[in-house]
Automatic annotation (TrEMBL):
It is found in: Endosome membrane; Membrane. Residues 639-703, 735-793 form the CBS domain. The chain crosses the membrane at residues 107-127, 192-217, 238-260, 266-282, 294-318, 371-393, 405-424, 480-501, 513-534, 554-579. Belongs to the chloride channel (TC 2.A.49) family. It is a multi-pass membrane protein. This is Chloride channel protein. Gene3D superfamilies: 3.10.580.20, 3.90.1280.20, Clc chloride channel (1.10.3080.10). It comes from the Eukaryota.
Length: 799
């Protein structure tokens, strides 16, 4: 060979000999003959074969990415990030520039959290200011500066009196502007008509913008975010258009007076900010698992700006939405929530140096006897939560399966019209829900002019402090109680049909409103009971005549927490959020008692929270970590193919042509294929993704000479010798997962489900004595669990 200067390179010769030793397919004579032919020593004087491209050494754009409505491979993504980190760490020792790059890479996560907090806080401040102004626009306008809401307009006025502090010459109702008077039935009708017209206009704009530009901007967004954080991909759900349209339409939907809140959608807005800003940093842009760590922190930011509760936001992300929440994400979530709360505080959207409209402070202590009504509120919250979930899911399923779902604009307009027409006559339903909660939470003082605080004998009380003792209820208070009772029924019914419409709609505020109304009613009842029967055993010793024993506002707060807990099944995070709202540590025990009771009662009536119920309704492949799998089934009972199914579609590690592989891809819709030694042995080699196969073959046709439909595809480490007349082979070992997760056919399904939950697997291969039998995907597990629960397995829509 040396005399001809055409000897085989050492590694190529070793490759051929290794193939012989490993596979035992060619005799040594045939190898030497092939080597002489390859070197040009004998035969026809063949030219050297073209260099094979190994996609392990030359990564292709698109390989390793995922298609829409597919689940990410958590194990592969984490492995890629570890490899990237090792490479950066090893290079950092070589030069100062590499060390600087390593430092910037470590710091990039904190910088991204800073940007997410700043952007989310700024957007939340703008939403709060705009929604407050547009809500007041339904009732009138400020003549001196039309961009002022009612409260800000009257701040600068020196002409309004203490008794009529809400009325000032600068603020004009629509009746005053149109007919010149605000008194009389005609003025009332004019204000009524304008209120309904503005509500219809706002809701029409909201649903039209959502339908035309960003269909993903509707709803709360939390069920989809939970699904995305579990590893599912929904392209565009956290994109630029969704963020822009959701921000605008959220203001319009809240201002229209519909029974919805902005707190849930703010989590979606914050996650959109996090996803968009991820593209500024390579390690988050190219790794889906790392991006989900950012989205977990962004969910915490959303609750932080919604309630002014940074710690509650972190706990909400940990308890309610996150699927994978390492300690590093906890620290970064805390930092991002802090930055967001600071940004919102700097904007000061409500002008009172508070982060929410219904911040309250209570000063009266609670007594042990009051735990009984607090637990009763918890029972009410659990019953309401279970009722709401069943009724709302029934209505949403009806919307999906009937002609009702074909007319989303008409549905929104009809619900808005009914809401506005029924809400206007009652002052407690006419005001925004946040203002209603603020009034219900309020602890009555001397400076309060609310009808709820207009007790009898106020003039006889010494006005030495703002705190007032328990007093008999006046006619105004009883009137307010009747109005609140009607408002409670109205809110309970209208929220069922509102949540899930094609506008941004949160559930936190409507649920809290229902609970706050019920709590205030019970609180006033307890207050009057203590006043008239202070000599009863219940009140003796701690509630003397003339003392401030009962705080109705505290009952409203506990009721709000109970109802929100019954609907969402939140516990720890909910108590912390409510604690941050009130700023009082001494009320944690009542909140804990009501929240825990609410969860127990709601779980007894139905295991799912509202977000899990909507995930199941939409057919998302979400494996609920809280749900127990207690059935004694084996992997062979769930795997595919079943006995009546065609055999499993596999690819052999060598011997299949490009055309055969392309035909297999065309004829099937699977996300990937097991690679085996041969069809006869079915010995498992690895697993290859469909998307990677398609991209690699397309790139090979363009970049590698001689690749045609008859070219052989090899997944082996060394390419076996080819006949002189054969076309160029294609080596695709680089895209092969050589360590797919496997279980035996007798593995219990509860263990398989645990593996899927804790490792975030896409699929798991089933073997028997090393021989491939079948495959289990997340969708197979969800269908199996649905069958066991007597649900329709075909409701799992996505793979």
């Amino acid at each position: 060979f040396k005399s001809q200067n055409q000897c085989l390179s050492t590694h190529k010769m070793i490759s051929v000999i290794k193939v012989v030793g490993e596979k035992n397919r060619y005799s040594l004579l045939s190898v030497l003959t092939f080597s002489l032919q390859y070197a040009g020593g004998i035969g026809n004087g063949l030219k050297e074969a073209p260099k094979l491209m190994d996609f392990l050494d030359e990564p292709l754009p698109g390989v390793g990415t995922y298609e829409d409505f597919n689940t990410i491979d958590w194990v592969r993504e984490k492995s890629k990030d570890r490899d990237r980190h090792r490479e950066i760490a090893s290079q950092s020792k070589e030069s100062t520039w590499a060390l600087m790059k390593s430092i910037s890479d470590a710091f990039s996560g904190w910088l991204l959290m800073l940007f997410v907090g700043l952007m989310s806080g700024a957007l939340a401040g703008g939403i709060d200011i705009s929604a407050h102004w547009m809500t007041d626009l339904k009732e009138g306008v400020c003549l001196s500066a039309f961009w002022f809401n009612h409260e800000h307009c009257c701040w600068n006025s020196n002409e309004n009196t203490f008794q009529e502090r809400d009325k000032c010459p600068k603020w004009k109702s629509w009746a005053e502007l149109i007919i010149g008077s605000n008194d009389g039935p005609f003025a009332y009708i004019m204000n009524y008509v304008m209120y309904v017209c503005w509500a219809l206009l706002f809701s029409f704009l909201a649903v039209s913008l959502v339908r035309a530009f960003a269909p993903y901007a509707c709803g709360s967004g939390i069920p989809e975010i939970k699904t995305i954080l579990s590893g599912f991909i929904i392209r565009g759900y956290l994109g630029k258009w969704t963020l822009m349209i959701k921000t605008i339409t959220l203001v319009l939907a809240v201002s229209s007076g519909l029974s919805l809140g902005k707190e849930g959608p703010l989590v979606h807005v914050a996650c959109c900010c996090g996803n968009i800003l991820c593209h500024l940093f390579t390690k988050y842009r190219k790794n889906e698992a790392k991006r989900r760590e950012v989205l977990s922190a962004a969910a915490a930011v959303g609750v932080s700006v919604a309630f002014g509760a940074p710690i509650g936001g972190v706990l909400f992300s940990l308890e309610e939405v996150s699927y994978y929440f390492p300690l590093k994400t906890l620290w970064r979530s805390f930092f991002a929530a802090l930055v967001a709360a600071f940004t919102l505080r700097s904007i000061n959207p409500f002008g009172n140096s508070r982060l929410v409209l219904f911040y309250v402070e209570f000063h009266s202590p609670w007594h042990l006897v009051e735990l009984v009504p607090f637990v009763l509120l918890g029972i009410f919250g659990g019953i309401w939560g279970a009722f709401f979930i069943r009724a709302n899911i029934m209505w949403c399923r009806r919307r999906k399966t009937t002609r009702l779902g074909h007319y989303p604009v008409l549905e929104v307009l009809v619900v808005t019209a009914v809401t506005a027409v029924l809400a206007f006559p009652n002052s407690y339903t006419r005001m925004s829900t946040s203002e209603l909660i603020s009034e219900l939470f309020n602890d009555c003082g001397l400076l309060d002019s609310s009808q709820l605080c207009n007790y009898a004998n106020v003039s006889d009380i010494e006005r030495g402090s703002n705190a007032l003792p328990d007093r008999p209820a006046s006619h105004d208070v009883y009137t307010a109680m009747w109005q609140l009772a009607l408002a409670l029924v109205f809110k309970m019914l209208i929220t069922v049909v509102t949540f899930g419409m094609k506008v941004p709609s949160g559930l936190f505020i409507p649920s809290m409103a229902v609970g706050a109304i019920a709590g205030r009613l019970l609180g006033v009842g307890m207050e009057q009971l203590a006043y008239y029967h202070h000599d009863w055993v219940l009140f003796r010793g701690w509630c003397s005549p003339g003392a401030d024993c009962i705080t109705p506002g505290l009952y409203a707060m506990v009721g709000a927490a109970a109802c929100l807990g019954g609907v969402t099944r939140m516990t720890v995070s909910l108590v912390v959020i409510m604690f941050e709202l009130t700023g009082g540590l001494e009320y944690i025990v009542p909140l804990m008692a009501a929240t825990m009771t609410s969860k127990w009662v709601a779980d007894a009536l139905g295991r799912e929270g509202i977000y899990e119920a909507h995930i199941r309704l939409n057919g998302y492949p979400f494996l609920e970590p809280k749900e127990e799998f207690s059935h004694k089934t084996l992997a062979m009972d769930v795997m595919r193919p079943r006995r009546s199914d065609p055999p499993l579609s596999v690819i052999t590690q060598d011997g299949m042509s490009v055309e055969e592989v392309e035909t297999l891809i065309t004829d099937t819709s699977y996300s990937g294929f097991p690679v085996v030694v041969s069809h006869e042995s079915q010995r498992l080699v690895g697993f290859v993704l469909r998307r990677d196969l398609v991209i690699s073959i397309e790139n090979a046709r363009q970049r590698q000479d001689g690749v045609v439909s008859t070219s052989q595809i090899f997944f082996t480490e060394y390419t076996p010798p080819q006949l002189p007349s054969s076309p160029s082979p294609l080596k695709l070992r680089g895209i092969l997962d050589l360590s797919p997760f496997t279980v035996t056919d007798h593995t219990a399904m509860d263990i398989v489900v645990d593996i899927f939950r804790k490792l975030g697997l896409r699929q798991c291969l089933v073997t028997h004595n090393g021989r491939l039998l079948g495959i289990i995907t997340k969708k197979d597990i969800l269908k199996h669990m649905a069958q066991i629960a007597n649900r329709d397995p075909d409701s799992i829509l996505f793979n």
